[in-house]
Amino acid sequence: MSSTTKKYTFYLLGVITIIFVLYLLHLIIANNIIFPDPLTSLKALGSLLVKKETYVILGYTFLRLLISLAVSFIIGGLLGILAGRYVAVKHFLKPWMTLFRSLPLASIIVIIMIVLGFSLSPYVICMLMLIPIIYEAFLNGISNLDADLMQVWKLESSFNMQVLFNIIFPLAKPFINTAFIQSVGLGVKVLVMAEFICNTKNSIGNALVTAANYLEYDKVFAWSFIAVMFVVIVEAIPKLLKPKSS
Fold this sequence. Notes:
This protein is an all-alpha fold. About 85% of the residues lie in helices and about 0% in strands. The protein contains ten helices and no strands. The chain has helices at about 5-30, 40-50, 50-85, 85-100, 105-115, 120-145, 145-155, 160-200, 205-215, 215-240. The relative contact order is 0.12.
């Protein structure tokens, strides 16, 4: 058995195990309304996938995630680069990043909703969760650069875009890629929770609220599966766009 075949075999076994555990929980709870069996949830998933409204909701949630990711990478990346170059900036930002990482998500959601209202809250909540991850990735990426290259960079009298794109980004790429993968997974979870609490129109969170209010828990599971696949697909985009080595 080749390594690729073995990998997909164990992956399939993992999926089958998840389905088995869900079916076992369904039998233990013994209430098809509260915890529907996997087949019922799959039927609900099928009914959602043929509706145009589902893809509109996915499109809006994807747009919110894209905006949050883009702004988070700009802010977190810039702060990480500055912290990597200037020790004073690193020490100044440390308590801020510790604060963002330590604050309970529920507290952040409540505070942001009070200050900014419902429409902007999902974006800001998502960004506050992602910026520390991206900041650490850029900071670690720069900190692990070759000492000679760092010395050359520090000798630059001004912010040099050529050095940034030709040296810093390529060498820090493994850290940035890891940050992207972590940010997508966490971003979707935080964004959907914020959409759920803020009852954001045209969102996965709102769809979950609606399904739960009407006791359609098969749709809750279906939307949860869609959210998982949403993360998998978005995480796979960079790999698909990456040019194949000759």
